């Protein structure tokens, strides 16, 4: 029997980060992700790592920048309002091409909002969040097991591409408990980091990690180079799950907990003979554009099931060149769509049929 | 099952305290009148006894809980009504304490009166499949931290080792070794071993002090 433990999603992130070799955590508590910090506070001292509760989110993200500069695996975590505070630091990490791992367990917003689950930080994370031209790799787990697996993946991607990867989860996945097989987590060794500021031993010129670049031609070139890297990521790192898409005429697009609700609704709709399937983006950036584009002509309607006022639906439209009908099936402010609500949207779309 | 006037459930967060406390209160209500369940969690705003408020009302069990529990107001508040636990000796009380030592701090105000009356059971709920209580050493460490914070020594252990929906009868049986080791190291008896629905039925007669549970708060 596999060596399973019963974990909250937040705990799975923390433990998987430790397994991935992260020994440095900086954060500031906020519901619904505080278990990550609590877990790190308990574990890091026992394994020679650093847990530090910073004086603010802004301090925490800049501590992440500091450790990232030394090439060590490092992370921070927060929930929506806290991520907004970290956004300046996220932009600086991008400008300095530093690898970092960041977790956002979203809650309802805007503002201080509430403490119930949400997906309304989709724009913020997939479009960068902070200022300037940059992206983060954005990973959207739909189970506790995936919280662990995508954490490991997140550290690997961050190192490989020298950029920030972010887990974009929601409060439900953070709080719910499911069995996890931690022994099943495989970690690839971190790549060499010749750019790290770890001392020269008087054998080379010193390294600098910096996001200030005052010569516009040079800064432009950095942006060009960074976007070439983004093209490689778009080509190589897209992850998604297809569910009952083979003969689907209605395509649901949903991620995180909304995708699980959608699967229940799809199972019910299939019993009624409705040809509906799901495309679940696992990477929100890069978005699974190609797999969606391939459905054009096969699917007449796209239903975007979201816990926001409709953000991902824009990427669904762009990926399919607005060549279908588009329905937003959503709740907001901390509410979760019910399978009945999604089923009703499917049935309505089925009545419309192909045009 | 023998019971005292006050039964306290403490343990690591996510060990199953709330669900066991509810089931225990339902059992008590079959044996006595004026049963109270008090939710003294000051740590976690989710998964509270308040989620079962309607069910408790239907079973004529009084619920004492902060009006902010389960709301969006994420503050560590305690209800003033909690003083009824120690002020009114005609009540039979089940207390669901928040997780870990931080949660047990909430007991501080009640501890002197509970100790003086000395008609209580302080139960340590353990789940050997939770990541921070997988070893006997870690489990005993959590226990000592809770005792230190709450000011009430434990009197017995509740073995609630499970894997959620993937719990098997074999898994529960195998956890007996872990529970016994915790028992030996702490000198505390195992008051009961918990199991859900079909797993509990499979375990009937195979395990001493089996406490069958109904799942009260459902998350799909």
Give me a quick take on this structure.
The complex is a heterodimer of chains A (355) and B (220). With 355 residues, chain A is of the alpha/beta class.
Report on this structure.
The complex is a heterodimer of chains A (355) and B (220). With 355 residues, chain A is an alpha/beta fold. Chain A has two domains: 5-236, Thiamin diphosphate (ThDP)-binding fold, Pyr/PP domains (Rossmann fold); 241-352, Rossmann fold (3-Layer(aba) Sandwich), CATH 3.40.50.920. Chain A is 40% helix and 19% strand. Chain A is built from twelve helices and 14 strands. Chain A has helices at residues 9-19, 34-43, 57-69, 80-95, 122-126, 144-161, 171-175, 216-236, 257-271, 289-293, 312-319, 339-352, and strands at residues 4-8, 24-27, 50-53, 74-78, 100-106, 137-139, 164-170, 177-181, 240-243, 250-253, 276-281, 283-285, 301-306, 325-330. A seven-stranded mixed sheet of chain A has the order 3-2-4-5-7-6-12, with helices on both faces. Chain A is globular and about 75 Å long. The two termini of chain B are 32 Å apart. The radius of gyration of chain B is 16 Å and the shape is globular. In chain B, helix 6 (136-150) crosses helix 7 (169-186). Chain B has helices at residues 17-31, 53-58, 84-87, 100-104, 111-117, 136-150, 169-186, 197-203; strands at residues 6-11, 35-40, 62-65, 92-97, 120-126, 156-159, 190-196, 210-213. Chain B has 220 residues and is of the alpha/beta class. Chain B contains eight helices and eight strands, in the order βαβαβαβααβαβαβαβ. The model of chain B has no long low-confidence stretch (mean pLDDT 92). An eight-stranded parallel sheet of chain B has the order 3-2-4-1-5-6-7-8, with helices on both faces. Chain A binds chain B through residues 4-8, 11, 15, 31-32, 35, 38-39, 42-43, 114-116, 172, 175-179, 264, 334, and chain B through 13-14, 45-47, 72, 74, 100, 127, 129-132, 134, 162-166, 219-220.
